[in-house]
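User: What would this chain look like folded?
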Amino acid sequence: MASTLVERHDGLVTVTFNRPQKKNALNAENWGDLDRILTEVAVNPEDRALLLTGAGGNFSSGADLSPNGNTGGLTGHGRQLILHEMRIVGDLINRLHRLPKPTLAAVDGVCVGVALGLALACDLVVASEQARFCEVFARRGLALDGGTSWTLPRHVGLRRAKQIAFFGDIVEAGDALAWGMVNEVVPADDLPKVAAAWGRRLAAGPTTTLSLIKRQLDASGSLTFEQAVEDEARSQHIAYTTKDMAEGIRSFLERRDPRFTGS
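Assistant: Here's the prediction, encoded as structure tokens.
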């Protein structure tokens, strides 16, 4: 049974962690699959949005730390110092965060540790009412990883991030929504439908323009207002060169929905 399932439909690439017997704990095969998928999606113009989710009612319980979980090392590159393993993981999550296509995480059940890092690295997160989030590291005597030292305080604020990280308590879906960790909470039975609908909308959008907007918003915390408006001018100049911009104007004048192609 494949540890990761990949489905492509109308520009949406759906990636499902598929180890339900382990609550989708991430092993070396998962990381290798994610490495390959991120490379493909980044360069394939037919791939216009990415959806991450998990099988069997859970997103992921984090890294598989069981003795038999990763005989070839955490990431499948042979056993080595944890520093090097975590640099490999960090690079993969950074690539997810920087992917020039919109990304969405659909979270049901547990989303723990490095899996929380994967979810927070996505542009949008939709969760079920049964979703449970946990920055578990301190409870295992570990420092933060998965990029959460950067993403968590940016989503929930520094004091709340310290509370979540210091105690390692479970954050229920309602609190995750109130604190800004997720965009929406829906009934568990509705999660696949809502996530697919959001994913299709992202995939049907003006892909190049969305990539520009993504870069603008992600960079906003490190720019002055003057730098931001200059970046807007340059980004708008690029957007004006796309076929999707012409289609957007044409559809407005013709009073119909746009049909973007991502070009």
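The two ends are 37 Å apart (CA to CA). If you want, I can go into more detail on any region.
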